[in-house]
Amino acid sequence: MANDGFTVERVPKYERMPPFSHDESTPDRFTRPAVDFAGPCKAPIALQDPSQFFINRKGGCKLQRSALSLLDKLIAIWTEWDSNQDYYLKELAPSIVRKDASVALTQREARIVNELRRLLSDEEWEQLPNLIAKRRAGELEFLASDRERALALEEAKRMEEEARARRKEEERARKARKDALIRRINNAFLSDFLSADQIWETDPDKDLLALDAYRSQKIGFVQGWAARELGLNLDSEQAAAVAATGGDILVVARAGSGKTRTLVTRAIFLQEHCGISPRELLLVAFNRDAAQEMRDRLADALGHDLPHVMTFHALAYALVQPEEALVLDQASADQFGLSREIQEVIDEHLRDGNYRDLIRELMLAHFREDWERIESGGFLLEDRDEFLKHRRSLPRESLQGDYVKSFGEKVIANALFEHGIDYSYERNFRWNGVNYRPDFTIPSDHGGGIVIEYFGLEGDPDYDDMAQRKREFWAERDEWIFLEYSPDDLREKGADGFAHSLIGDLRQSGIKCSRLSEDQIWKRVRRRALDRFTKAMSAFIGRCRKLNLSPADLKEMVGKHEPFSRSEELFLDIALSVYKAYLRRLKEKGKEDFNGLVWRAVDQIRRGQTRFVRDKGREQGDLAILRYVLIDEFQDFSAMLYELAKAIRFANPDVQFFCVGDDWQAINGFAGSDLRFFERFDEYFRDTSRFYLRANYRSARSIVEIGNALMHEQGQGGIAIGDDPGWARTCPVDSLNSLPFERKRHDGDEITPAVLRLVRFFLDQDWSVAMLCRRNGLPWYVKYEDQKAEPDGSLEKFADHIRAFFPEEDRARIRISTVHRYKGNEESAVIILDAVQRSFPLIHPSWVFLRIFGDSIGGIEEEERRLFYVAISRAKKALAILTDSISSSPFLDDIAKHMHIEAIDWQDLPEFQSHRDQHLEIRIKNAFAVKDKLKALGYRWDSQGRYWWKMQRSEGFSFDDLLCQQWAQDGIRVEVYSQDGERVFNG
Length: 987
What we know:
Elements: E1 2-3, E2 6-9, E3 21-22, E4 30-31, E5 46-47, E6 53-55, E7 61-63, H1 67-77, H2 81-98, E8 104-106, H3 107-119, H4 122-126, H5 128-136, H6 144-191, H7 196-202, H8 211-230, H9 236-243, E9 249-253, H10 259-272, E10 281-285, H11 288-302, E11 308-311, H12 312-320, E12 325-327, E13 329-330, E14 335-336, H13 337-351, H14 353-368, H15 371-376, H16 384-389, E15 396-397, E16 403-404, H17 407-418, E17 424-425, E18 429-431, E19 434-436, E20 440-443, E21 449-454, H18 461-475, E22 480-485, H19 487-508, H20 518-546, H21 551-560, H22 566-589, E23 591-593, H23 594-606, E24 611-614, E25 619-622, E26 628-631, H24 639-651, E27 656-661, H25 676-679, H26 681-684, E28 689-693, E29 695-696, H27 701-710, E30 719-720, E31 727-732, H28 740-746, H29 751-764, E32 769-773, H30 795-803, H31 808-811, E33 814-818, H32 819-822, E34 827-832, H33 857-873, E35 875-883, H34 890-896, E36 919-925, H35 931-936, E37 940-942, E38 947-953, H36 959-963, E39 973-977, E40 983-986
Parallel strand pairs: 2-8, 9-27, 9-28, 10-11, 10-26, 12-23, 21-22, 26-27, 29-30, 31-35, 32-33, 32-34, 34-35
Antiparallel strand pairs: 1-2, 3-4, 4-5, 6-7, 13-14, 15-16, 17-20, 18-19, 20-21, 24-25, 36-38, 36-39, 37-38, 39-40
């Protein structure tokens, strides 16, 4: 190995030299134990030369190898001094100086020599043999090069100590400046909070406190203030939103994150700590209940000196002070003045023969049209791909009002309806212990009847196998006739030909079929059709008013719009006339609606009239002096309200907006809300910043996770607070294996026993229950006691039906609502009643009438997703999602991609026992002659047992009264069974 011209011979690594020791009697001396030299120099070497050590940066002593120590090492290696001194001094050492390549050195020798060359001066290096000789003789105590290095090291040490002292002083000064900066900032927080950001930004020592540290100081101050002054514990996200200053602010507040608390606390903080006058603060909400809740919370902290708190409509009224009477719909106050005005205009059109016929044509076409037919007619145009993507979400509504699964089913349903044939859609039967719902059931007066199945998925092995088993099921039941059809029948014969063939088959099966006239059909659907038409027209007019359209504006829009279908075309033609007549009616009657009032307020503000008066003059204000406008539920903002905000800023350029909402709960697009103002906040507002409230204080962990999974990749989700996992289950109704008495008591009704079991379980945990549904009607068959079974009763009727099974003290703890109406509320336990296709999502057929405003299937489906999220997020401790394993909501499929929801084991929830004592089952046999009387009394035919039966409460039951009824004739046999199946009477 070559090294500086010397040949190196590799030898084993030498032993480390013994360590230095400190002689306490001479603190300035370091000694090393004697090294066993082979030569005469064997005494310990005293390292008095300061060049042999230096002080490191931490103040400790560290050995610094000197040239003298290296000479000692070289002398020690050359062990044959007695016999080879001349060789070492006269041949080897001079050769080293000359860098003679012929000299072979060991690796250790080469390392020492190289280090020596580095340390010695040129003059000393030339004298190397002489230096070795003097050192071995004990005559050399120091070298000039070592002394120079020692002095340099001493100087370096001194400079290092001075630098260290300077650094310490600078650090002390920096800390003092930082502490002073924090004091200045805290003083600003105390005395001029709204300027604190500017004070920090312009402070010469700003760089001493990082932005995150400054924000932490600010958040901590607000948290401390809220705790002291209000007794509130704000989390860091809430406090950050309260503390935000400068520009327009959007707070994205997930469900259960303390949205209202944050908004109200900010108003209190601005008024009480920042010195903002209550006259300079305006809080606005979308409904009276929300405004009242804010006012109540403010009053608890501020007493009577409150800022302005009102709804948007109340603000418009206070600005305009209209002379006209206002018309509005407010269900909570039982006010439906707006609907009545629109209905009056519609009634005027119905009295006009031309429009009456057009409305009839429109609604009959609407009920009869189907998306497949529209698609084949080429009406979808550029939206064809969207239609195909969302096809299974599109309901098909029949003339009777059933939401069927396919066009083929719709043709069948309409054919039955048009021929006056009473039928049930998806009526429940028991099949090998499970629930089975054939498509159509036409019962006969003598038991049994006709079952119609439309097999729409032929070619799928599993589906074909199931179809075959259904054929075999009905073949074993002589009292039933089974008819089956497929899409091939529809393709081969067309819709009219298929319907004609179906009616022919029914006639051959003994069903009397007579085609109703169009007048008769209209008479049967008129009430529902006109109700649908009125609702659609009301929504249409509301959208027009929110856009401030004149009749001419609307006519221009309609002229540029390409309708999907004949019904949409007719609707828009009629809507032009209805809208024009509605506006004319308002003017003639001296009335105004709230949308028109808001637009008048916008115009008035732009003309410089900014003062407003409320409560008979007891509250007065001026938009021009406002400093802050705080908006609740900002996700429901609309183009109309944005124009109102723009007008306020036009009159008052310095006003700042603080907007709080949750884009995951934006569910009012049908009413004109526009999520773009939330999603693109920075495009519509000024100097914006965005904050997030994610901590969910309402719901248990599993419920929060289900909501996040549903909304995956649509923004930051909620974060559950606490360790409670909660109770969350999917509950397939068709997996409930009802017990015999349940089946008798509810007779084909699947939903009631499932809900009763769940409600009883929740009440037993001391949890109140909210039952939520997509629309005001269930997609399940319900057998109402003492009444005819209804396929689609109202929600309140179903709630009364469920409550009736419970004692009085429990009934108030059972609530029901549509999801839309329940937004803003919460409950310990929530049951979602209809997580099935055609409910979640529900693309209502009437959506097509609002296409002209930009509504789309995809946009509606995403709003339906948000509606499902609202339903989920109402639950605090428990969530039951009722579904059907065959037709579950696609939203459940989306959730399953990101998490697993445990399915309920119905055996864990025992059969519900009603508080109303036990039920009895009455069976009447040999009663053919009185069957009509029995049917009128609610008895039902059991085709297997060959008897008529009815459930009867045991409370107040009398055998004698039973046998005294008119149908109790000779030869009729009566049996009564207890709920446990024991026969208790036979007569």
